[in-house]
Amino acid sequence: MTSPVEAGPVEAVGRALDFTEDFTQELPCEDGIPLENLWHRLQINLLDDCVHQLWRGRTDFYAGGNMFVYYSLQQVQRQDYKGPDFFVVKDVDGSYVRPCWVAWREGGRLPDVIVELLSPSTRGVDLGAKKALYERVFRTREYFCYGPDPTQGGEPELLGWVLGRDGYEALVADERGWLWSRVFGAWVGEWEGEYHGARSRWLRLYDAEGRLIPTEAEAERKRAEAAQAETEAERRRAEAAEARAAALEAELARVQALLSNQPEKPSQP
After folding, report:
1. Chain segment 174-232, per-residue pLDDT in tens
2. Which residue in 118, 172, 222, 244 is deepest, having the highest Cβ count within 10 Å?
3. Chain-centre distance of CA 179, in angstroms?
């Protein structure tokens, strides 16, 4: 999301846990402000897709995008209903969808990873007030920024920080320009290609060996291609077996013909 979130003291999270369900049940979950463009929406969806494929079959995490994160009483009083472009919370029940993330309903849990999509209008906030909020209040373990939108002629850059003893420490990219995420156990890096019909540069995940984590559609396509290849291989094996059987049958017929055409040996006197 594009608007700033005001940073408050660390103690605000603790105070937020004193909220009652009656007080918070009507928290807004939408501000009616659309994402900047199609690329932003697709990039959020792509990250969500990749994380769910990375941890396929697991339900002990929650990934959210373009949704509010509630963390303090002051935030609600100021009607500051903004949140990260994309975030992941580990060690929670991810088996159901939330309309927004409310920390005091989640045992005080806040994002372990946050990704903001940079743009000329949000860069200052993403690298300033939001970064300070995630560092000092959320205590988010890893924070990544990527952008601006390459479909608008931008030259995206990837920035990342890991939470250390004294605050955020900048992550150093490898020779590919990728950043290692301990939370994901994967590389965060650029990829150029097509996603949902849009060709661009995207932020994606790679495993420890540098292999691209596929989207659900890519994984299904690979499984279909593998199944088709196996079917083709089975067909070829069957044809080869039939050819060998035919060759053996022909050889047997030839031998039998030779034996039947041999002259009878004269009987012994």
Report:
1. 999 999 999 999 999 999 999 999 999 999 999 999 999 999 999 988 777 777 777 67
2. 118
3. 15
What CA–CA distance (Å, rounded) separates 84 from 126?
9
pLDDT digits (tens, 9 = 90+) for 98-153: 999 999 999 999 999 999 999 999 999 999 999 999 999 999 999 999 999 999 98
Distance CA 80, CA 176 (A): 38
For the record, the structure tokens of 266 come out as 């004269």
Rounded to an integer, what distance in angstroms lies between the CA atom of residue 89 and that of residue 60? 9
| Three-state DSSP class for residue 26 | coil
CB of 215 within 8 A of CB of 46? yes
H or E element at residue 222? helix 216-261
Q: Report the alpha-carbon distance of residue 147 to residue 157 in Å, rounded.
A: 6
Tell me the two tokens of residue 138. 């959320």
Cis peptide before 111 (omega within 30 of 0): no
Helices (H), 162-215: none
DSSP letters for 51-110: HHHHTTT--SEEEEES--EE--HHHHHTT-----SEEEEESS--SS--SSEEGGGTTT--
Q: Per residue in 58-91, pLDDT tens?
A: 999 999 998 999 998 888 888 887 789 999 999 9
List all residues 6 or more positions away from 255 whose beta carbon is below 8 Å from its beta carbon: none
